[in-house]
Backbone:
């Protein structure tokens, strides 16, 4: 059986790309859920007064930010099997997803940690001192005074990173994670009875455009919500 | 009786001794101006009184009771310090208003947090209304009733500083400290802030004002301290210090600050 006309191909391709895009979305959200809190821990580590700890954390952040994510993916996926003779991820799509998620979470947590650090250190010390002089406790100062100012500082750079993450998920293609690019590319050879077609790969761009468009609108809305004050 | 008595306060940062044996006292309702050149330790003194810095040695008495004794500072918990510092208010040179809150909320926030435990059940609405009414009165006293719902970024520097004064007053401190309250302002805005401070005086609020405004210090204060290199070089009534300074350093400082005008 073969499908020749675009109209015949479209529903089949669309269904296959949706499956791939679901995997893209899964990687995207799992990365955020892991990297947003891990980044906070890393940022506390890099701001720690314990010099060896902050030094170590800064070196890790430098290595992770200074090397390509694609390389990190390859090392995390193949490293344990080759170096330790222990392929911890297991085979199959689940193993590839797990390895991708770990690589993405570590990578993005390091980027987020630097953004948090800028946000936290960017709030003037005078805000803290004003709270102290007014008899507030440290938790009260954090939650009632400085937190929102930090968030306001963090949102614009975070929105840039998160929109980059949408597109970066495609790097997991390198270890054959079956995300949307993988699904589109499959039609160049043969997939679901369709072969030798390039357009499904190009069509994946539409998914990215729509998704990053939605995020851009969302972050624009959040920024506007906080535009009533300047800090 | 003296509302405030400071005995032999000392403070060093590393090897530099910034406060060298500071002692003075203040009566209730008095306004004290502290003058002196840059780096003489005026800010550090106010920060020690407000527990933003911990003095290395010395004692502070409030209404005759020992409030702070550097020799047993280890025993002061964070909670103790919070209670003790509420005896003082501090108005910063750079205002430090909370940018995300409007004028009213800037003034009520700390009071609400302080009375959080009382605000339970039926009492809650009543106490909240009381706090808000008190804040509105104070905001009126600093002449900003029309700006009560504005955010700090919508106010001039002079207006922001008046909000900062209202915010400090809302906690009814025994002693209100000002650290160069007009230094960050354009010259045409200093007048409105100085006027507010002057009007507070008639309410028998005790004040310590670090300032470079010599005319203001002369006219408004009951007492003037001239600090130089971490020591009180000279203290007395404004007429004594400005009209008839004894120390050569004071004379030199006054001549220099007159030239600047
Ligand atoms: N946290 C600190 N660490 C180290 N040195 C400090 C610190 N705070 C103040 N100093 C030093 O202490 C000295 C006194 O500073 P302080 O701010 O009390 O002076 P000041 O009289 O308020 O001066 P100005 O008129 O410029 O405000 C200065 O030499 C300053 O560099
Ligand atoms: Mg100063």
Residues:
């Amino acid at each position: 059986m073969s499908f020749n006309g675009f109209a015949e191909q479209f529903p089949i391709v669309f269904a296959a790309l949706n499956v791939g895009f679901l995997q893209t979305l899964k990687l995207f959200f799992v990365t955020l859920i892991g990297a947003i809190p891990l980044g906070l821990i890393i940022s506390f580590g890099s701001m720690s007064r314990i010099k060896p700890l902050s030094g170590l954390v800064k070196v890790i952040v430098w290595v992770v930010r200074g090397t390509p994510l694609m390389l990190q993916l390859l090392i995390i996926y193949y490293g344990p099997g080759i170096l330790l003779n222990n392929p911890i991820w297991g085979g199959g799509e689940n193993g590839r997803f797990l390895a991708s998620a770990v690589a993405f979470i570590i990578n993005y947590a390091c980027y987020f940690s630097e953004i948090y650090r800028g946000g936290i250190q960017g709030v003037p010390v005078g805000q803290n001192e004003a709270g102290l002089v007014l008899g507030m406790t440290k938790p009260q100062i954090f939650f009632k005074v400085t937190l929102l100012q930090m968030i306001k500082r963090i949102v614009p750079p975070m929105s840039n990173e998160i929109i980059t993450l949408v597109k970066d998920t495609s790097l997991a293609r390198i270890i054959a994670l079956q995300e949307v690019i993988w699904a589109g590319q499959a039609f160049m050879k043969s997939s679901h009875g369709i072969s030798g077609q390039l357009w499904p790969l190009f069509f994946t761009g539409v998914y990215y455009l729509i998704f990053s468009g939605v995020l851009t609108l969302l972050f624009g809305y959040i920024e506007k919500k906080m535009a009533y004050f300047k800090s | 009786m003296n509302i405030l008595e400071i005995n032999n306060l000392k403070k060093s940062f590393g090897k530099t001794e910034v406060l060298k044996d500071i002692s003075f006292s203040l009566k209730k309702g008095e306004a004290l101006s502290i003058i002196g050149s840059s780096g003489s330790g005026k800010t550090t003194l106010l920060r020690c009184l407000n527990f933003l810095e911990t003095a290395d040695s010395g004692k502070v008495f409030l209404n005759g009771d020992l409030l702070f004794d550097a020799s047993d500072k280890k025993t002061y918990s964070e909670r103790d310090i919070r209670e003790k510092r509420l005896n003082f208010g501090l108005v910063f040179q750079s205002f430090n208003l909370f940018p995300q809150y409007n004028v009213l909320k800037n003034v009520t926030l700390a009071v609400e947090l302080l009375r959080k435990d009382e605000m339970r059940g039926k009492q809650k609405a009543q106490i909240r209304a009381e706090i808000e009414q008190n804040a509105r009165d104070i905001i009126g006293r600093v002449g900003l009733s029309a700006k009560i719902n504005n955010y700090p970024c919508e106010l001039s520097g002079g207006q922001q500083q008046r909000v900062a004064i209202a915010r400090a007053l809302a906690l009814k401190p025994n002693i209100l400290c000002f650290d160069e309250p007009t230094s960050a302002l354009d010259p045409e805005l200093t007048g409105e802030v100085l006027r507010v401070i002057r009007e507070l005086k008639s309410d028998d609020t005790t004040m310590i004002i670090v300032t470079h405004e010599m005319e203001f210090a002369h006219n408004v204060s009951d007492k003037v301290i001239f600090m130089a290199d971490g020591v009180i070089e000279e203290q007395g009534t404004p007429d004594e210090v400005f009209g008839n300074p004894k120390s050569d350093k004071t004379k030199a400082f006054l001549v220099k600050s007159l030239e600047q005008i």
